[in-house]
Amino acid sequence: MDDLNTTAEKIRTMEIRGAGRIAVAASAALRDHAKKLKSLPMKEFEIKLEEAAKTLVDTRPTAVSLPNAVALTKRHSSTNVYAAIDEIDSNAEKFIKNAEEALDKIGRIGAERIHDGDVIMTHCNSHAAISIIKTAFDQGKDISVIATESRPRRQGFITIRELNDYGIPTTLIVDSAVRLTMKKVDLVVVGADSISVNGALINKIGTSQLAMAAQEARRNVIVAAETYKFSPRTLLGEMVEIEDRSSEEVIDPEILKELPNVKVSNPAFDVTPAEYIDLIITEVGAFPPAMAFTVIRDYLGLEIADI
């Protein structure tokens, strides 16, 4: 089993990728790390626990599922180390179980929005979005998918393999073909890395391009997101940080050395305004973006003190 630092490095380097998978991995890693601290005095246990939590949270600044998972896992009311570890263990088991069940619930709720014969466009690789597509297919609906390549890391290749192996007809397109191809699409279904209190979506770079093209073509955009992907810190006015990743994901460093007047910008995410989103599908129901505050307040399970 990986230790906490190994898990943190896998998250940082995107060996573990996807907001949901990151959250589950972080919760399990923090739980296991807490158990290793059982011989410490309570005060030192708290310090080490917070250090471990920060190590995990600092790996990926945009995916709010990560700090939410850590906050939900580490909180406890005990003054005894063994009792605190029991609470943390229980928190992690509950979080992981709920995360797994959430995908099935999102699939069932979201599939109601897909009709027989629909062509669905998706972007990057989202377990939640794919759950909706697979559930609709399992219901016997004659659907097909158009998936973007999702550069620079080409997560779309993971999506097309998964859909192919499930028997769902799928077409791969380059990211720049989204607007041209949108006329063939009935519905856009994407995942989420974060959703802010005003209903804006932070997701893989290029998502806003899909949403804008969909609005122009008068196609609906559905976001599939577990409740732990809503950002409680945006209640306090904090902006979601957009992660800027290494230029090596875009261009060979040796080639870049030959281009002294060129620099590379590699933002990993972009922001889609709420007005471009028709519906957010969560495990507790379907909500318009304007109800993001309600989801954070009533369903996320975090108090202001936790964030």
Question: Please, could you describe this protein's structure?
Answer:
Helices cover 43% and strands 13% of the residues. It has 307 residues and is α/β, with parallel strands linked by helices. It folds into 2 domains: 101 residues, Four Helix Bundle (Hemerythrin (Met), subunit A) (Up-down Bundle); 201 residues, Translation initiation factor eif-2b, domain 2 (Rossmann fold), CATH 3.40.50. Helix 1 packs parallel to helix 3 and helix 2 packs antiparallel against helix 3. The chain has a 7-stranded mixed beta sheet with strand order 3-2-1-4-7-9-10, with helices on both faces. It has a 3-stranded antiparallel beta sheet with strand order 5-6-8, with helices on one face.
Largest sheet: 7 strands, mixed
Strand order in space, largest sheet: 3-2-1-4-7-9-10
Q: Supply the CATH architecture of the largest domain.
A: 3-Layer(aba) Sandwich
* Cα gyration radius (Å): 20 Å
Average pLDDT taken over every residue: 94
Helix content: 40-55%
Please identify the structural class as seen in this structure.
Answer: alpha/beta
Tally the beta strands.
10
Total helices: the number is 11
Order of helices and strands: HHHHHEHEHEHEEEHEHEEEH
CATH topology of the largest domain: Rossmann fold
Strand content: 5-15%
| CATH H-tier superfamily of the largest domain | Translation initiation factor eif-2b, domain 2
Task: Using the coordinates above, name the CATH class of the largest domain.
Answer: Alpha Beta
Low-confidence stretches: none
What is the total number of structural domains? 2
Distance between the termini: 29 Å
The coarse overall form would be: globular
Family: Belongs to the eIF-2B alpha/beta/delta subunits family. R15P isomerase subfamily.
Protein name: Ribose 1,5-bisphosphate isomerase
GO molecular function: ribose 1,5-bisphosphate isomerase activity; S-methyl-5-thioribose-1-phosphate isomerase activity
Keywords: Carbohydrate metabolism, Isomerase
